[in-house]
Amino acid sequence: MALQDESLGIDQLSVDYDYLVYRISDRVKSLELEATRLVQRQNELVGQVSERVIDENIERFRGVLRGLDELEEYFAMMEQIGMITDSFKERLDSAMAALK
User: Fold this and answer.
1) Contact assessment for residue 74 and residue 24, using Cβ atoms and an 8 Å cutoff
2) Using CB atoms within 10 A as the burial measure, which of 10, 48, 55, 60 is most buried?
C-alpha cells in the first residue's frame, strides 16, 4: 500500500511539474509578446511623447515586472520540486539498499 501511495505521489509530482513548466512557458511567451508590443508602441510614440502616454507605459511595464515576479515564484516552486525529488531519490536508494 505504501509503495502504491509513493507511486501516486510520483505521478502527481510529475503532473504538477509538467503543469508548472507549461505555465512558465506560457507566461514567458505572454510577457515577451507584451514587452514587444510595448517597445513597438514606444518607438511609434517617440515623436509624440506626452506625460500621459509615458505614465501609461510605465504602468504597463510595471505589469510586466509583476509578471516577472510571478515567474520568479514559479522557478522557486520548481526548485522545491527538485528538492522533493532529490529527497525521494535518497529515500528510494536507501530502501533499495535495505532490501538487498
Assistant:
1) yes
2) 60
Residue 6 domain boundaries: 1-99
Distance between CA atoms of 73 and 43, rounded to whole angstroms?
31
The number of folded domains in the chain is 1
pLDDT in tens, 8-26: 678 888 899 999 999 999 9
Residues 6+ apart with CB under 8 A from 57: 38, 41, 42
Cell of 88: 525521494
- At residue 47, the pLDDT reads 67
> Which set of grid coordinates corresponds to residue 27?
507566461
